Amino acid sequence: MIRKEMIAMLLAGGQESHLGVITETIVKPAVTFGGKYRIIDFPLSNCINSGIDTVGVITEDKQIGLTSYIGIGIPWDLDRSAGGVTVLQTYDRSSESYAVTGPANAVYQNLDFIGMYDPEYVLIIPGDQVYRMDYEIMLDFHKALNAEVTIAAAPLAEGEKKRGMIRTDLYGIVEEYAYEPDKIEGTMADLGVYIFNSRVLKSALEKLGKKENLDFGKDIIPYCLAEGRCISAYEFSGYWKEVGSIEQYRKANMDLIETNPDLNLYEGFWRIYTRGETPAPVYISGQGSIERSIVGEGSEISGKVQNSVIGPGVIISEGACVSDSIIMQESFIGKEARIDKTVVAEGVCIGDHVVIGSGEYADNVYDPVLYNAETSVIGAGSRIPAGVKIGRNAVVSGRTELSDYPDGELPGGHVLFAGHREKEGDKA
Amino acid sequence: MRAIGIILAGGNSRKMRELTDRRTVAAMPIAGAYRSIDFALSNMTNSGIQKVAVLTQYNARSLNEHLGSSKWWNFGRKQGGLFIYPPAVTGDSWWYKGTADALYQNLSFLRNSREQYVVIASGDCIYKLDYDKVMDYHAEKGADVTVVCTECTNDEISRFGVLRLDEDSRIRAFDEKPTFSESTTISTGIYIVRRRLLIRMLEQCAREGRTDFVKDILIRYKDTKKLYGYRMNTYWSNIAAVESYFRTNMDFLKPEVRDYFFRQYPGVYSKMDDNPPAKFLAGSTVKNSLVAAGSIVDGTVENSILFKKVYVGKNCIIRNSIILNDVFVGNNTTIENCIVESRSYIKADAVHRGEDGVKIIIEQKKGT
To answer: Which domains are seen in chain A, by residue range?
Structure first.
């Protein structure tokens, strides 16, 4: 039998929050980030950089995108003969999806996978966070405190509220844990990264496994605390961003264009690995110009780009102007198009003279909670016909035709789901 | 799997000036993000060749680092793989005395294979070619050796083997590096030959104490064996001279060259080194240039190529230049018509200008 001291279980399935049309065809961990990465690259790279070479990625079986992206793990050096990365499914067909059964239940359904490696410790990590953390140091902390469970935690700013709130004693042992508390009792926030002694995790999951929508913060941690387990809180003070909303996603991307960003990927250590399609350099033509932006491999820039994050393989045509936006990979921006404060997902084709993000802000008529900022969003694979105008905080998804735009315009705050996406859009 | 591949990557060249002091030509960085040998390796894998030997000699460290894993080119299989063969130090040999000798010293690689053909290519040429099509041609012509050739369109003909083909494309004349030639058809250094025939010819050649594949095999056998030329009409460039190296890189500023190599199928593969995306700060003005991943630009860059991990400081002007990997350029510096060697540290407020042709700048960081 292969034995590993610690293995990781990466939760990359039914997310509690989604990013609207951005996550229409892919799970959130597979969403492009920072001009060349996908969000899941961060936890995967953290694993290999921390010396963890066995990772189970739990996802939903309809998500071929993530499965094929991970493959056998070559980009993260996780192609191992013993261990490596394994994409796991949830097997319980009685419920509709992983989102219903809950992340802890997904781990419960894969206890056999953990058993294969007989690890002493199991690391639980969400797939939708952007950060660099050395889990080995966290494990040292876990051992030093003789803890049975360790929660990675970040100090809370005054008045700040998070899901899981922790109050510890002087040494970092958790005295109180509150999930979605009404009044703030804790001083630290639960980041959703846990180290469990395998036996403790197994017994908790076997006890609670069948519960609906089983969650670590909501169920497992309070259960362990009630059982009298020794739980410690490992304080993490580095850059950490949860990509829970479109606005958070946009801001986390924009953080990277700063001259000296908090998350500095140019330092050369603790590299974030990714599956790149091409190593080709960026080309900027004689008509192009770029300022305060990052641009992924193989992109061709003939227009003007400002304050933006441009993914790999993007083409920005002559006269186009892209500002304060995120353009994901393999998207095409036509001539003289003007794109402001917009997230353009993968493989989008935007026609000539299209204007996106113009005019005044308007509340989103479709889902004002999800689409709640100035940011307009164009879903993956969308087509925007030449010459149309799309307002602020508007959403477009699918292959749209000129006839879909009355007077050639989609006003701010409005949505347009074209073709087969109509039904999907309703779900969003 | 009807062929194995051999890439000759041992070459050094005085025409490369200081650039090959530190690495062999096959390891020269190309087009911002590649190494010269990536093209031959990608052609091999894209032609379905799974077993490839790279013969190295001079300054192979950089090349060996680049070839540290074979997975980037899809080798490293149970069937086949990528093999790197430096000269073996034995009683009577410690060096490859020539291309034929290099092949002869690795005769066991040829003997222990079962594939019918051998594709021999060099690591210092930039091109895309489906070797499988050349093998079809080879079989169709009933050739003993097929030499891939192209038309030389510039004044560098004296660097190459010059061929004269008859109407049937059979090679009737073969001059190695002539000072004057009427023909403009040159050998690309890519050969297809039956494995068993190659073994026989190499053995014969070694018995006679001869060492060069072109002079001692191709030219000597051209009348007794059937040597055919396969005309290649697509982009091909040999980089083994500074001017040619510079021009080949600058070719990638042309949209049709980028489209051909970067976007058209099949792709060119290289080692992935996970640099963050190229970053452009507030002071950046970039025109008609290529900028590779890991670079940070805060100055003016025109008609230039910035390789990986290049930093260009404020108020810099980089014009008509090639900045190789991992170079720091301090503020207010001007660089024109230059090739800046890898890992250079260019001080602030400096001016570097190639007045009479391309200037090579090597300024090492302290302590390296």
So the answer is: 6-247 (3.90.550.10), 277-421 (2.160.10.10)
